[in-house]
Specification:
The complex is a heterodimer of chains A (about 250) and B (about 220).
Chain A: H1 9-14, H2 16-48, H3 51-57, E1 73-75, E2 94-99, E3 105-108, H4 109-114, E4 118-125, E5 130-141, H5 142-149, E6 157-162, E7 167-171, H6 172-175, E8 181-186, E9 189-190, E10 200-202, E11 215-221
Parallel strand pairs in A: 1-5, 2-11
Antiparallel strand pairs in A: 2-3, 4-5, 5-8, 6-7, 6-11, 8-9, 8-10
Chain B: H1 3-47, E1 56-64, H2 74-85, E2 92-96, E3 99-103, E4 107-112, E5 117-125, H3 127-136, H4 143-164, H5 172-194, H6 199-206
Antiparallel strand pairs in B: 1-5, 2-3, 3-4, 4-5
Helix pairs in contact in B: 1-3, 1-4
Classes of the chains: A alpha+beta (about 250), B alpha+beta (about 220).
């Protein structure tokens, strides 16, 4: 007996409109099947390749928080999230430390390397959902830069400044935490230009846009000044464990 | 104008408006093809920016050469590194601490003198995507803002005229209503399901942490 879902070939040949309808039906079925296949394949690929995320979710930081903030998945290398790049070379690098301080100053790359250095392992968490765990960063703590400048007593916020007018704000008490630094080396290598070379900020306990790339300045201020992403709908504070993604 | 001619104009419009709509839709659709390709392709590329670099292909290579002691003068250190690496004259050089930087137009080499470890980093632009993404982000500003605005109005026209281009059984009042409803339901359902833009703040408040004070733009 003939399958009722398939028209009789003789009828198809006799009736061009039936042939057109049949062709269209087959096209729609094929497109739908292809879409489902791609979606299911993508989901399986993501689930199957996420052993790192599963392991990280089971770990604790030792401060009452899970190692992996909610809504994050672990990747092995930084992703390039774009942005207006700075020149990227060490020769033209200058870091201005200024604002509500007694002794503002400017450092070139060689002077930065002469300050007390710190090496620390840190996890970073991008607001788009990826986290990169356990990278080794080398640089200078913001606390060291603040002490050298002599921060005034009423300072409450720190503005990280970068090329092309990019800024991002961090509360002063969080910016002088031991883990916060300006960094020029990761895992023993310099930063690539797309990742903020030669020097970028590192604020590991906040979403990664707070770790400004292509750093040009650290400004200490009394009143808060939301930065580039903060005035474009992203959260003013950006704590990954509270999923403070959007304002 | 006489009643007769008014009547005939009204009749003409009544008879022809759908045809005119289709003609405009077709011609403006032709106009929109180039921009649609740019926005759609770069939209796909940028949408998955967390998974790949839509603008560049990058590479990083590691090598090791003989260590270069700190007391070797700069010129000699540069010459020694270039000879060991087999590279031409760099655009610029810089030496600080144990680092020696050799900068070229499309790559840089950083030699760590203490260990002799060398990191080479470089990249090449994805020509079409980089330009398309640049346009999509409107990084150039100025005139492109007007082009993007005109294109947005074009899309609005194409969307609205598409509703009424074909009458009857295959047009808006048949499956059209259902499909338009489905299309509108997707973003609405997503916002309802995800909680929308204020969901994260709500979660923070529920966790017992006060929400940050409302903030103003810098300078305001």
């Amino acid at each position: 007996m003939r399958d009722p879902r398939h028209p009789d070939p003789v009828e198809l040949e006799r009736d061009p409109s039936l042939q057109r309808r049949w062709d269209r039906r087959r096209f729609i079925q094929g497109a739908a099947a292809g879409t489902v296949l791609v979606a299911v394949g993508g989901a399986l690929y993501r689930l199957g390749g996420d052993e790192l995320t599963r392991k990280a979710r089971a770990e604790d930081r030792g401060d009452g928080r899970k190692r992996l903030p909610p809504g994050q998945r672990v990747i092995e290398r930084f992703r390039n999230m774009g942005g207006d790049e700075g020149p990227g070379d060490v020769k033209s690098f200058r870091l201005r430390v200024h604002g509500a301080v007694r002794s503002p100053y400017e450092l070139d790359y060689a002077a930065l390397l002469k300050l007390p250095q710190t090496e620390q392992t840190a996890d970073v968490h991008c607001v788009t959902g990826w986290s990169c765990l356990g990278s080794l960063f080398k640089g200078v703590r913001v606390q060291v830069l603040a002490d050298k400048a002599g921060v005034k007593g009423d300072v409450r916020h720190v503005i990280f400044e970068a090329h092309h007018g990019y800024t991002t704000n961090v509360p002063f008490r969080e910016a002088i935490a031991p883990s916060v630094m300006v960094t020029y080396r990761m895992n023993g290598k310099p930063f690539a230009i797309e990742h903020g070379a030669p020097v970028r900020g590192l604020v590991p306990d906040l979403y990664f846009w707070k770790s400004a790339k292509w750093l040009t300045g650290i400004r200490f201020v009394v009143d808060d000044e939301p930065g580039y992403w903060e005035v474009r709908g992203y959260h003013n504070h950006a704590d990954p464990w509270k999923e403070e993604r959007y304002g | 104008m006489s009643d007769a001619s008014e009547g005939s104009l009204a009749t003409l419009i009544r008879k022809r408006w759908r045809g005119w709509l289709r003609a405009f839709h077709r011609d403006l659709g032709y106009l929109a093809v180039g921009l649609t390709v740019i926005y759609a392709v770069s939209g796909l590329a940028i949408n998955h920016i967390a998974d790949w670099d839509p603008n560049f292909t990058t590479y990083e290579r590691e090598r090791t050469i003989a260590p270069i002691p700190a007391d070797v003068p700069d010129d000699a250190a540069i010459a020694q590194a270039r000879a060991a690496l087999g590279v031409g004259p760099p655009r610029s050089t810089y030496r600080a601490g144990d680092e020696l930087h050799l900068e070229y137009d499309d790559r840089k080499l950083v030699v760590y003198g203490d260990s002799g470890q060398v990191t080479e980093q470089g990249r090449e632009a994805r020509f079409f995507l980089r330009v398309a993404n640049w346009l999509h982000y409107n990084r150039g500003k100025q005139a492109w803002t007007y082009v993007a605005d005109v294109y947005a109005f074009l899309l609005l026209y194409l969307a609205c005229s598409g509703l009424f281009m074909i009458k009857g059984k295959k047009g808006f009042l048949y499956r059209g209503v259902i499909l338009v409803g489905l299309g509108a339901a997707v973003p609405i359902a997503y916002v309802v399901w995800s909680g929308g833009p204020s969901a994260a703040n709500q979660a923070a408040r529920t966790a017992g942490e006060p929400a940050p004070a409302p903030t103003a733009a810098p300078g305001s």
